[in-house]
Amino acid sequence: MLNLTVLTEPAFCPHSLNKYASVMACGNGYMGIRATHEEDYTRQTRGMYLAGLYHQAGRNETNELVNLPDIIGIDVELDGENFTLLAGEILNWQRELAFSNGELRRSVLWRSSTGKSYRLESRRFVSLDQLPLVAMQFSITPVDGPAQIVLKTGIDATQTNSGRQHLDEISVRVFDQHFMQGIYETQDRASDVVISAYCSVSPDADSCFTAKNRRVTSHHSVNIAQGDTVTLDKLVWITHRSDKALSQDSFARNALSELKVCAARGYASLLESSSCAWESVWRDSRVDVMSSEPQDQVALDYAVWHLTAMTPAHDERSSIAAKGLTGEGYKGHVFWDTEIFLLPFHLFTRPQIARSLLRYRWLNLSGAREKARRNGWPGALFPWESAASGQEETPEFAAINIRTGIRQKVASALAEHHIVADIAWAIVAYWQATHDDAFMRNEGLTLLMETAAFWMGRATEANGRLEIHDVIGPDEYTEHVNNNAYTNYLAWHNVASAVRFMAMFERQDRRFTENAARFLERLWLPEANDDGVIPQDDTFLSKPAIDLSRYKEKAGKQTILLDYSRAEVNEMQILKQADVVMLNYLLPERFTVQQCAANLAFYEPRTIHDSSLSKAIHGIVSARGGDTERAYAFWRDGIAIDLGDDPHSSDDGIHAAATGAIWSGVIQGFAGIQIMEGELHLAPKLPAHWQKLAFPLRWRNARMRFIFEQDAVTVETSAPVSFSLWGTTLRACGHHVWSYKDFLISDNGTATTEGSHDA
User: Fold this and answer.
1) HSE of 64 in the Cβ direction (CA atoms, 13 Å)?
2) What are 47-82's pLDDT values in tens digits?
3) Residue 400 pLDDT level (bands cut at 50, 70, 90)
4) Which run of H or E residues covers position 680?
5) Three-state secondary structure along 715-729?
6) Which end of the chain is more exposed for a tag (fewer CB within 10 A), N or C?
7) Which residues have CB under 8 Å from 573's CB, separation 6+?
8) How many angstroms separate the CA atoms of 36 and 93, rounded?
């Protein structure tokens, strides 16, 4: 077993309950459960979510990821006193998420207000090998005398999405002494949810069941001697369906049968099976770093953990929400984050999952076509926010302004069209890394042509050329501009890629090809000025600049909007994130190292980094330019978004894309991995305090492993593969070691000579 780190919660704090409920959440891509405590706290937000299970609660609401009935809660009475860490005294505390097997563990030594002490221990995990399974153990040991202990737990369907109820209770049942089951339907009758639970207390307790007010509960009372332990075992099997081919009774019976098989095995055996599944994940994707900062390794394990736990590898009709499966933020919707920040991890570690994420877009193509037609354009305009269907899920209006009583219109769905080209970029990157011709010939090429058709229709005649007007780039502080550099360059890349792959796979469409040729020849691509700076849009460079220092100190808080209206921000050189730096990152072959450095130097002082995605990209571009120290500072700031000291940074879920950025910051930054002109390039340059970096990588038909040390590069590959190291083409198969002395490396991490080397 790999020697993996653990994520710890340093102390119980009522102000950070929801932060740790998010960052320590357990999941398996099918299901996610927030790491709430078993006992209730008023400020604590419980949450359990199933990938792809959305529902619209009312006509003025949008579809959102359904927060399911709670199964984690346990009411605990110790000698007649309700257990809560807000009273009494915490004598000892330990809580950790073990990345190796996904087990969340807590141990508390607690003294009640009466002076009696108890040790309470809990363990739970969401199974990676049996996706519908959740397993829990909760144990209590009286330390200084006998005790009467009462435990109450079950299925609590009073749970809501911030007050919105999505499920109707159809039936609740109990079976013999240990099993209970609730059957629920979404209120539109589209989906069934069946929750089956097994509860057993050892030693034997007086037990009974109750069902009232959408709660079915098992009650257990036991007297126990000093030093002895009472343990509640709870296993839960959660299934849902939209296909009603099987009767509801049969569907529920099957779920109960599966649970009974698990109950016969017990917690330890089930954990062992799940651990084996996790071991396979870590073998294929773990990034090892030898650093003088232990938190660096914790952050990398945290990233891979959540990138696995949030990704619905089982279902190509689901994708990754902006908060994964850890909270209700953004209503569980899918954004451009998936293709740009999350897909690269899967592309280089588990390409079949990257394929599945792209097929989610292909399966929802009809909704994108409909949105384009509704707005008067050809091709496919993908929704800015999507859920289970291809329909636009972005709310038409934001919250009501409490001073004016007026709702502000949300502009993203109307103008933030770069998502179309982002999806196309991801399709091309997938093919380059896999050479999956079957996918590209069918789904991939269809998506490229439909998205390219959109851009050809979206462009407008102006100034004797084609331009793209009235858009919002990734920088959402600059709205409704013309010729946003990020959008125009990515649109050009989109259309050029469609033409290239049409030729490659002999797809004939003369009219399309002629239109594309005109588009590629005439589309305006903003050009760098004498200083090498590419203008973000037609007007950005003419706007006034202000000192952003105090706003940058509180990056992510959007404090600029406390002093200026959005309209005022729009008329100044103020960036939420820098579009041109993002462009330099995505299309490295289009820009020189000097151009990237010039744009980074110009745009960073004008960037507040209020987007959680901003600093990671600045870090990667800095690393590619050879400024490893600055890149590392950006990378650590990216880690702090969720794992920093802010007690409320992740209350409504983790920043899912930021976990992808942690991985990419190392692999695409410090390891220097890039796909340029369709080929794999590496230019590693480690932070000074990193002695070693090692990671697996999938490239086409080869399984590779790279080890970078301060004076050597080791490459292991399962099949012959060509790649570029510091500009020198290498061909390798098996195990090879290259000394840095074999290469002449410039300060910016590139080779000063070119050649080839067979090994």
Assistant:
1) 24
2) 999 999 999 998 888 999 999 999 999 999 999 999
3) confident
4) strand 679-682
5) EEEEEEEEEEECCEE
6) N
7) 540, 541, 543, 544, 545, 546, 606
8) 16
Is the pLDDT at 758 greater than 70? The verdict is no
- Distances 209 to 81, 179, 182, 376 between C-alpha atoms, Å: 21, 10, 13, 59
SS3 (DSSP) at 626: coil
User: What is the distance between the alpha carbons of residues 631 and 623, in angstroms, rounded to a whole number?
Assistant: 5
Query: Mind listing the pLDDT tens digit for each residue in 183-238?
Result: 999 999 999 999 999 999 999 899 999 999 999 999 999 999 999 999 999 999 99
Q: Are 84 and 77 in contact (CB under 8 A)?
A: no
698 DSSP β-pair partners? 703
Q: Which helix (H) or strand (E) holds 397?
A: strand 397-400
Residue with tokens 């749970």: 159
Q: State both tokens at 82.
A: 């309700």
d(CA 338, CA 253): 36
Question: What counts of helices (H) and strands (E) characterise the chain?
Answer: 22, 31
275's CB contacts (< 8 A; 6+ apart) are 1, 100, 101, 102
The token pair that represents 576 in the structure block: 């939420």
Give the Cα separation of 200 and 235 in Å (integer): 9
Of the candidates 177, 131, 147, the residue with the CA atom closest to the CA atom of residue 31: 131
Q: Is 476 a catalytic residue?
A: yes
Q: 176 or 512: which carries more pLDDT confidence? A: 512
Tokens of 218: 């098992």
| Cis ω before 351 (30° cut-off from 0) | no
Contacts of 8 (CB under 8 A, 6+ apart): 94, 95, 96
- Per-residue tokens: 100: 């190796």
Provide the token pair at 250.
Answer: 């049969």
DSSP 24-65: T-EE-SSEEE----SS--TT----EEETT-EE--STTS--EE
Structure pTM?
A: 0.96
Q: Hey, is 735 helix, strand or coil?
A: strand
Q: What is the DSSP string of 497-541?
A: HHHHHHHHTT---HHHHHHHHHHHHHB--PPP-TTSPPPSSSSGG
Over range 683-703, report the average pLDDT.
96
The single-letter code of the amino acid at 725 is: L
Residue with tokens 């340029």: 676
Which of the following is catalytic: 316, 476, 679, 716? 476
pLDDT digits (tens, 9 = 90+) for 104-134: 999 999 999 999 999 999 999 999 999 999 9
Q: Provide the pLDDT for residue 746.
A: 54
**Closest to 693 measured CA to CA, from 649, 628, 602, 598:** 628
Assess contact for 342 and 361: CB atoms under 8 A.
Answer: no
Distance, CA of 582 to CA of 247 (rounded, Å) = 51
**Closest C-alpha to 656, from 612, 617, 607:** 612
3-state secondary structure of 458: helix
CATH number of the domain located at residue range(s) 11-285 in this protein:
2.70.98.40
